[in-house]
Amino acid sequence: MDVEERLRQKKEAVERELERILSQEDSLLFKAMRHAVLSGGKRFRPLLAFSSGACFGVSQDVVLPFACALELIHNYSLVHDDLPSIDNDDYRRGQPSCHKAFGEDIALLAGDSLLTLAFEVMAQTSLEENLLPRKEKVLREISHLSGVKGMIGGQLMDITLTPEELTEEVFHDLILKKTGGLITASVKTGALLGGAGDSELEAIGQYGQNIGLAFQIRDDILDTAQEADKGALSRPNYVSQFGLETAKRRLHNFIETARGVLDKASLESEELHYLATKLLELENKEEK
Description:
Layout: H1 3-21, H2 28-37, H3 44-55, H4 60-82, E1 91-92, E2 95-96, H5 98-102, H6 104-123, H7 132-145, H8 151-160, H9 168-178, H10 180-193, H11 198-230, H12 238-242, H13 244-264, H14 270-278
Antiparallel strand pairs: 1-2
């Protein structure tokens, strides 16, 4: 089975489990939650968790609930990002964003519910006794990198910093938190469940950080092209700050660094290499 087929099957497993998790009720709140999550998306973060776990010999069944939790957290962040007080986006994945479909009040609660549900899913996951300390480490890592020191901290920087304050160092710090936080948590989840050693965790973490930087720069390159066609640019991004050619060069550099980190640490993973290399494709933008 080739790498694309393996990843496709893993993505399908995530879709099935997300649908099961979000089918607990048919209330208005759960309808909004399903609208937010089950409307497409690459499931990039779950695939990173699966691929990292496979690198350390962890079965897909063990990783699955944590992979789904990561996707729930990601989608909660998108629901809140789309709100008028943040990005004010009317559409997500080709359909009305959650607040346009259900109202701002329900969208806010749907995002809150997705976040808390993510931790409920992880907390309720039954593992063999020898894996429980690893589960605790995963919970600590995800909560840290999705919170004020990670994704939320990056979002705060994104909405408060002025273009004049966005030096290259500051911009990279913003990306490493806002986008790279949950991506790094995803690859470290698989590694932690597999009992990776300190040096291996360091390497996996560096891979995640470089992938996070590359992911956001790719997004900014594609967003700039789309927004330029419409004659309007939103808040500053990597391209508007540093130029298109610099952005493309940095994208390649971060991907090569990510791949190199794996090779240097002797971490063999065709899937992690593939997911990194796919970010170099700039023909079209897949939905988040």
